[in-house]
Design a protein that fits this description.
This protein is α/β, with parallel strands linked by helices. A hairpin with a 2-residue loop joins β5 and β6. α1 crosses α11 and α7 packs parallel to α17. The chain has 19 helices and 21 strands. It has 3 domains: 136 residues, no CATH class; 275 residues, 3-Layer(bba) Sandwich (FAD/NAD(P)-binding domain), CATH 3.50.50.60; 167 residues, 3-Layer(bba) Sandwich (FAD/NAD(P)-binding domain), CATH 3.50.50.60. The strands form 6 sheets. A 5-stranded parallel β-sheet has the order 3-2-1-7-19, with helices on one face. It starts with a helix and ends with a strand. Bound molecules: NADP nicotinamide-adenine-dinucleotide phosphate. The site of NADP nicotinamide-adenine-dinucleotide phosphate (NAP) has 25 residues, from α10.
């Protein structure tokens, strides 16, 4: 073992995590007595320890961990539940409600067991068709196969990866920390960056698919056209013929149909024009005048990545994004940190746990309405107003030399109304460049050689790039689904998609969605976690199907669930009447978001309650 690398690890690791792994390895909790981590929202996450305590942690880690790493000593046995609870609470930096503990300990998986792996389904051999080989579809297929279900995946693209396969624009990267954005049971120890880039993510999902035999069961370049329940099974018509199975799972994601804006003259543009999710690598942007429409999560990443290449860029903004300070957003994982993830026992698990907790439900009060709140415009509560003011201060600090931009970059809607973007300064630096104009006058029309705004100004462009998002509310918009008695899913929804737990719809037996309606999160957690929960439910429902035959959700259970979701979404920032976003459908209902705590989704998806379901 490399002593120099270990010493580097001691100074580059996440200190609170280092303390906890030292306690675990020694079995001696006294390190937890001296100081408790305090996490400042805008801080470095290191716990705010005194210098003395920080060096004490490092000395203890050296004394305890090095002999274990070199094989000269054995680690203490795994902590018992009481000790684990103490470690969890200490690392979290505060009280953790009791009902969170089983949920957190499952996520932590300290014993290395895949605690979410399903037991084999014994009653009957089932088959399933999974539509989509992205993050959720691969997961659903893998878990169903683990339970003994015969799975076929149907994938429209030529490879796995879904969003990471399709979104290849310059600068694309994950905006959830990577040591968390991975399957809980499939850790990756060599993320090159804290928020790795698209090709790295694609590689992770390709490796996962390869390791679990999922390529062999996938029909690539094949589109589902119509899935039909025939009274006993699903008949799935695809571009490559009809397949049949007991269960049909849609895992097509919420953000896979690019949305082009409805701006007059769009077809008249004579130069190259493309959407961020269909980036055209054949178009050389060097020395070009580029018009970018949209300032959401995608534009936020590709604008800074291309700004040096272009001779001029007009960025057309309808709403300014909220910016969440994230200093390490583009940072490589330092060598010592990397070494710790790979070699310090349980470091990877506790660090992931810490990220999980920091991004979990503690942030929700910042974006929830305080009853009776009567504060400033565009605020919904005390915590929301305080955070808003702090974020505006951070924006102002970045634009000391460009005060003229402030009016345009400070959002005029409630914080949390849309997903905040991770900011390490590159966005505002790009926008402030001399050859970039942030245009907030509405677009009137697109013409052959540029864009004309409502004030009559013609802005010439050689290339037009749409960062205008996706048809998010058009769930499963690329195919038909027909349930019992010939009911059509899209007719049933009538533009207002809803489901029970995002998973099931009445009269659609043995049909499930992953990342379906109201399972998106805005401020808390990783979407992979939600998918793991949903897939857990699907596999347990499959067990019930094998034992009792086809099932669908009872209408009153579905309706009562949606009423609860709607009531809670109305209390959240993204549900406020003045906020417009892709989270809302045409009728203004929030169709995308899960408004409750993550622990609630976890608890609701442990297993189906047979009383909620009806035999088909
Ligand atoms: P988006 O967030 O929906 O942003 C679309 C942008 O286009 C918005 O600024 C929108 O303005 C603007 N726009 C739409 N129609 C317009 C029109 N007719 N005229 C002018 N502007 C128009 O789409 P996105 O940036 O592709 O991101 C979608 C979602 O994908 C994100 O919220 C996130 O969940 C996910 N995503 C994640 C990552 C990541 O993790 N790294 C990266 C990219 C995307 P308004 O805001 O006024 O509607």
């Amino acid at each position: 073992m490399n002593r120099a690398a270990f010493e580097l690890a001691l100074v580059s690791t996440h200190l609170p995590t280092l303390a906890v792994v030292t306690v675990q390895a020694s079995g001696d909790p006294s390190l937890l007595d001296a100081e408790t981590p305090v996490y400042d929202f805008f801080g470095d996450g290191m716990g705010g320890f005194s210098d003395e305590f920080a060096s004490h942690i490092r000395n203890e880690a050296d004394r305890v961990l090095w002999p274990i790493i070199t094989g000269a000593a054995q680690p203490a046995p795994l902590p018992d539940d009481a000790m684990l609870k103490r470690m969890v609470i200490w690392l979290a930096g505060g009280e953790v409600p009791d009902h969170y503990l089983p949920f957190l300990l499952e996520e932590l998986a300290l014993d290395g067991r895949d605690r979410r792996a399903p037991a084999a389904i014994e009653a009957r051999k089932l088959s399933a068709i999974v539509c989509g080989a992205g993050m959720s579809g691969l997961l659903a297929a893998h878990r169903l196969r683990q339970a003994g279900v015969e799975v076929t995946i149907v994938e429209a693209n030529g490879d796995v990866g879904g969003t990471w396969y399709l979104n290849r624009y310059p600068g694309v990267r994950v905006d959830t920390p990577n040591h968390l954005y991975s399957y809980s049971f499939e850790p990756n120890h060599d993320w090159p960056e804290f928020y790795s880039q698209g090709d790295v993510l694609l590689g992770y999902f390709q490796r996962f698919a390869r390791a679990h035999g999922l390529y062999e069961v996938t029909r690539f370049d094949t589109r589902v056209e119509h899935a039909r329940w025939d009274g006993a099974r699903w008949q799935v018509e695809t571009s490559g013929g009809t397949l049949s199975a007991d269960i049909f799972v849609s895992a097509v994601g919420q953000l896979n149909q690019p949305r082009y804006p409805d701006i007059p003259g769009r077809q008249d543009f004579a130069g190259p024009a493309f959407h961020s999710a269909r980036w055209d690598d054949g178009v050389d942007l060097t020395g070009k005048r580029v018009a970018v429409i949209g300032t959401g999560a995608s534009a936020f990443q590709f604008v800074p990545a291309i700004v040096d290449r272009v001779v001029h860029m007009d960025v057309f903004q309808r709403s300014a994004p909220w910016l969440g300070p994230t200093d390490n957003y583009h940072d490589p994982v330092p060598e010592g940190f990397q070494w710790a993830v790979e070699h310090i026992p349980a470091y990877d698990k506790w660090y992931r746990f810490w990220l999980f907790w920091m991004l979990t439900d503690g942030v929700l009060p910042n974006v929830r309405v305080d009853d009776g709140w009567n504060g400033p415009e565009h605020t919904i509560g005390a915590a929301n107003a305080e955070l808003r003011a702090a974020l505006i201060e951070k924006i102002e600090a970045q634009l000391a030399d460009r005060r003229d931009l402030l009016d345009r970059v400070i959002p005029n809607y409630v914080l949390g109304g849309k997903r905040s973007l991770r900011d390490n300064g590159v966005w505002l630096r790009a926008i402030a460049r001399e050859h970039v104009d942030l245009v907030t006058t509405p677009i009137e029309r697109i013409v052959a050689d540029g864009v004309v705004t409502a004030d009559g100004v013609h802005r010439p462009a050689d290339v037009l790039i749409y960062g205008t998002g996706f048809h998010a509310s058009n769930f499963l918009g690329s195919f038909r689904v027909t349930g019992s008695g010939g009911v059509d899913l899209h007719d049933r929804w009538a533009g207002d998609p809803r489901a029970y737990l995002g998973l099931m719809v009445p009269d659609f037996p043995n049909f499930f969605m992953v990342y379906g309606p109201n399972t998106n999160i805005v401020v808390n957690g990783s979407i992979i976690f939600l998918s793991e929960c949903g897939v857990n439910y699907i596999v347990e429902a499959a067990r019930l199907i094998a034992e009792r035959g086809p099932v669908s959700v009872k209408p009153h259970v579905h309706d009562a669930f949606n009423a609860r979701v709607d009531a809670e979404n109305a209390r959240m920032a993204w549900g406020q009447p003045g906020v417009s976003s892709w989270y809302k459908g045409a009728n203004g209902r929030v169709t995308q978001n899960w408004p409750f705590a993550l622990v609630d989704y976890w608890a609701a998806t442990r297993a189906p309650n047979p009383d909620d379901l009806i035999a088909a």
